[in-house]
Structures are given as C-alpha cells and as structure tokens.
Amino acid sequence: MSLENTPVITARNLDLTFETNDGPIHALKDVSLDIGKGDFVSFIGPSGCGKTTFLRCIAGLETPTAGEITVNGMTPDEARRARAYGYVFQAAGLYPWRTIGGNIRLPLEIMGYSKADQNERVNRVLDLVDLGGFDRKFPWQLSGGMQQRASIARALAFDADILLMDEPFGALDEIVRDHLNEQLLQLWARTEKTIGFVTHSIPEAVYLSTKIVVMSPRPGRISDVIDSPLPRERPLDIRDSPEFIEIAHRVRDGLRAGHIDD
C-alpha cells in the first residue's frame, strides 16, 4: 500500500503521571512514535510498562501530562468525537441481554444511524469476522473466540480507519489464538485499517505486525522499534522461518535490555 508511510498517529515526548493516594506513578516517559497509515503496530513489554496506557492516550481515554499526540492531525479527543477509531478491549464486553446483532448495533443506535443502515452494517461486519448468521444468537451461545470476534465486529461497525486493540486474545487458548491471529491478518488485508495492538506474546507480535514497539518497565519508555521485513501475507508456518526467529530474538533482547536498564 502506497499510503502506509503517511503518519496517522504521532506522539512527541509524551509523559503521563498518575496522582494516587500513595504518591505519583510515572506511567509513560518521553515516548515518541509515528504510526503510518495502514500499519499494523504491536506494543509489547512487561506488565505495567505503559502499553495499554499509551493505547488509551491515542484513544483520548487518558490525558498525557506532557508532550503531545495527534490522531489524523487532531487531538485524541477531537478524533474520538470524529469517530476516527474503534476500540477492542481485553474482554469482549458484550451485553448478555442483547443478541450479537444487538451488541454490534448499539454504538450505531447511539450515533443515530437509520435502521436500514444499522442492519446493512451489522451484516457486513459479521461477514468480515466470519460470524454471518449469528446475529440472533446471544453471547452465552458463542465460544470465547467467537465473542471476541463479535467485539471486533462492533468496533468495525462505524467504519473507522483506525482499530485499537488491547490484548484481545490474551485470555484464549493457543489454538484459538492462532486461528484468530490468522483471521485478524486477513481482516486487516481486506479493510486496510491502521491497527494498534497490545500484547504480551512475542510470537503474536512478530506474526501480526509491520512494526513492533518494545517498551521497558515503568516508567514506560520505547526501548526499540522494529520494522518487520516479513511479507504481508503470512501463513502460520512462517514462524519457523529464520527471519521470524531473528525478529523474535531481537524483541526478546529488547525486553531483556529494558529490564537491565531499569
């Protein structure tokens, strides 16, 4: 894609300190990063390193205490109001009393889309995540992986160009996770979204990403940014290739160096 070098998310010297009853917590320190249009960027690091905090800053859910961040040339809050992104949380967060279709329809109802437009969008995104025909099912009738795919469909329903995903597959078993990783790459190829993805898994980060951002322990800093040389079409067995293993070693070395520096 020729558009991929155009920055859609830019952070410069970002700091964030939370004030708590036990004193200040320095969550992010001097974070600078560009994310290009169409990139798939994974954030990896130890627990508490600020991966999710940075994603929430992009989404306008947290406010940095220093530095600046723009999304499509706007502040994160302006981008949120412009519906520039969809957000997928760690848990599917589906309302049990609403059908799968009803859960996906909810943000569209809030945004004031017509019934006809709602129905068209629900059917389209269900097909995108291979859940066509499940719109009348309830969450409890679906497996954990299917529920998370429904959550992704909900985030795609209003057709934002950016998809932010906070460890969406972290609670799933390895076989289901591998399958959803393959499906997510296919979805990314079809939609050409810009994706920001938080994970604790080195193989997942390397398999999915065009760019891997390695973060150090608190205060969260970027210790390495790895541009992946892997082709965009990636069968699962690419994980056995020398190129994949070399990138995984670099990620592991970056995580280890971050602990040593800390």
What does this structure look like?
- The chain is built from eight helices and nine strands.
- It has 262 residues and is of the alpha/beta class.
- It folds into two domains: 2-84 and 161-261, Rossmann fold, CATH 3.40.50.300; 92-159, no CATH class.
- Helix 3 packs across helix 4 (115-128) and helix 7 crosses helix 8.
- The model has no long low-confidence stretch (mean pLDDT 91).
Quick synopsis:
The protein is of the alpha/beta class and about 260 residues long. The protein is built from 8 helices and 9 strands. Helix content is about 35%, strand content about 25%.
Index terms:
single chain; 262 residues; alpha/beta; Rossmann fold; six-stranded mixed β-sheet; three-stranded antiparallel β-sheet; 8 helices; 9 strands; 25% strand
Write the layout of secondary structure elements.
Elements: E1 7-20, E2 23-36, E3 40-44, H1 51-58, E4 66-71, H2 76-81, E5 85-88, H3 100-111, H4 115-128, H5 144-156, E6 162-166, H6 174-191, E7 194-199, H7 202-208, E8 211-215, E9 222-227, H8 242-261
Helix pairs in contact: 3-4, 3-5, 4-5, 7-8
CATH topology of the largest domain: Rossmann fold
Q: Please identify the structural class as seen in this structure.
A: alpha/beta
Count structural domains. 2
The amount of helix comes to: 25-40%
